[in-house]
Amino acid sequence: MEFVLYEVKDAVGIITINREKALNALNSQVLDELSATLDGVDLNAVRCLILTGAGEKSFVAGADIGEMSTLSKAEGEAFGKKGNDVFLKLEKFPIPVIAAVNGFALGGGCEISMSCDIRICSDNAMFGQPEVGLGITPGFGGTQRLARLVGAGMAKQMIYTARNIKADEALRIGLVNAVYPQAELMDAALKMANGIAAQAPIAVRNCKKAINEGLQVSIDEGVAIEEKLFGDCFETEDQKAGMGNFLKKKDDPTKVKVVSFQNK
Ligand code: CAA
To answer: Active-site residue 2, yes or no?
Structure first.
């Protein structure tokens, strides 16, 4: 792959968008490579993903403006669908994805971070949806996910004014969960990812599914989704190991050990 790097450290997969010269802007090739990278993740071995950008300046500076500049109406719609398909794949990916936002996250960059489960960022990060300044709407889900994440009022302000916000403001409005010095961002992302990877993997996947699917429906339907996924956990070996360990610990504190979950 030319523009996407993938490496695995223990049970964590790290995807790096690697088009530093263009501040990791998303052209069609990057989107295709991202999609193929996700298809290639070994879900038996990897329990959490981190998504980041190459270099220290930019996470993703948006969709590629050069590529978009000559699109017709139909081509524009198709380009939007192309991005949306990849971002939906990321959002619905069975295991959690942490966006480690290491700089500019503008337009499609902000949008791809919002397709991830969790966002943390470096102190030089900048978020925004500058599209209306380019004569377009956000096209990779920004109008939908920003409003869901930070509320309609704040999303509308950001999108209508095209004003970028710095890391501290992104933290204040709940767009990111934490801000780190640039040099510490990847360690923090890895620590969080390893913490997730140490939990019962089927239970973690079911939590992701329950939260994502539950947010689209009424509370009654949402709790019904949770009940089903909760029930499914009782067929797993990991549930027996996790609860068995707790009970052993109660009987005899010397028997405490960290459970090594088997993804079964
Ligand atoms: N598309 C294509 N190329 C981009 C790009 C983008 N979104 N963002 C940056 N680049 C390229 C620049 O053209 C430049 O390339 P050259 O060296 O070949 O000229 C290189 O990256 C470095 O960029 P700058 O020289 O502009 O760097 P800077 O530090 O002066 O500015 C910046 C950084 C503020 C992020 C500025 O590059 C910028 O404003 N980029 C565009 C951000 C933007 O508007 N993003 C939204 C795109 S629209 C979108 O994403 C639609 C959607 O929802 C699908």
So the answer is: no
